[in-house]
Design a protein that fits this description.
It contains 3 helices and 5 strands. The protein has a 5-stranded parallel β-sheet with strand order 3-2-1-4-5, with helices on one face. By secondary structure, it is α/β, with parallel strands linked by helices.
Amino acid sequence: MLEWGCGTGDLLAELKPVRGLGLDFSARMIARAVEQQAGNSALEFRVADIEGDPVGEPFDHIVLDYLTGCLPDIQSALKGLNSAAHPRTRLHLTFFSTRCG
């Protein structure tokens, strides 16, 4: 399982993947994730930018939790996910819409 914008890694840890890779553009957040999730050997964390850093390995699930609203070019970021996907990869998106109601 791959989570872009993983922050402290809490969501990835709660999802309990067999193998989880958390990526975030913030080195400070990755340092916190490594510290907070230190006891979980199934998780790995790296600094990466969704708009420019290819992952280079496929995952069965890709999670973008409230990330798309923070991206200046959503289409480009989603195209970049191809390097982390295979034909049966599931993409899980959550987002907040300010246009409700």
